[in-house]
Inverse folding.
C-alpha cells in the first residue's frame, strides 16, 4: 500500500471517530510529529515558505529565469 493510500485510509477512519479524547490525542500526536519533522529538516518554516513562493513564481512565469551565462555576467559587474 502506498503512502497516499495509507493517508486516505487514516483520514477515513478519523472521520468516523466519536471519542473526543481519542481525537485530541491524535491531534496532539500529529502536531508533535509535524514539529519534529520540521526540526529535523533544520530549515525554518518561514524559509521553506519563501522558497516555495519563489518556485510558484517560476512555475507561473518560467520566462523570468535568466540564462546561467547571463546571470554570471550580472554577478561580475
Amino acid at each position: 500500500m502506498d503512502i497516499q493510500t495509507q493517508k486516505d485510509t487514516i483520514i477515513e477512519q478519523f472521520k468516523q471517530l466519536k471519542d473526543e479524547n481519542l481525537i485530541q490525542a491524535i491531534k496532539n500526536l500529529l502536531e508533535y510529529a509535524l514539529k519534529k519533522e520540521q526540526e529535523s529538516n533544520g530549515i525554518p518554516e518561514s524559509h521553506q515558505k519563501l522558497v516555495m513562493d519563489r518556485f510558484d513564481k517560476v512555475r507561473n512565469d518560467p520566462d523570468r529565469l535568466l540564462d546561467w551565462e547571463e546571470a554570471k555576467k550580472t554577478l561580475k559587474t
DSSP finds four helices and no strands in the chain. The chain has a mean pLDDT of 88.
